[in-house]
Design goal:
Elements lengths: L1 H9 L1 H11 L4 H7 L2 H23 L3 H21 L7 H16 L6
Helix pairs in contact: 1-4, 4-5, 5-6
């Protein structure tokens, strides 16, 4: 997700032109692209923080839990904040909460 968001951020205009050139009508593509370049840049930043949080968790550092948790909460809110028509996913919340709970279970053994 880190690389994908960065790629779309830098090629945003080209992707919109390509869509118009090949005349493909994909509503989901238009919905995601309606978030604009800032949506993808924010995604890049948040997924990078989340990745570093997971790396820190692997090293048993407590800061990793906090970074991961905060980044994941903001990742859940990101599409809702940037794309008004984006449907909110309860399944995403449940999966994220499951991972956070799993990491929290090992919080006491972290340094």
């Amino acid at each position: 997700a880190v690389v994908a968001n960065l790629f779309i951020f830098f090629s945003y205009e080209k992707m919109l032109l390509l869509k118009d050139e090949i005349s493909i009508n994909i509503p989901e593509f238009e919905l995601i692209m309606s978030g604009g370049r800032r949506f993808f840049f924010a995604g890049f930043i948040l997924y990078s923080i989340s990745f570093y949080g997971v790396y820190s968790l692997y090293k048993l550092r407590r800061i990793g839990f906090h970074l991961y948790t905060v980044a994941q909460v903001f990742i859940l809110a990101l599409p809702v904040a940037f794309i008004p028509a984006y449907p909110f996913s309860i399944l995403s919340v449940l999966v994220t909460a499951g991972f956070i709970a799993g990491y929290a279970f090992y919080y006491n053994i972290m340094k």
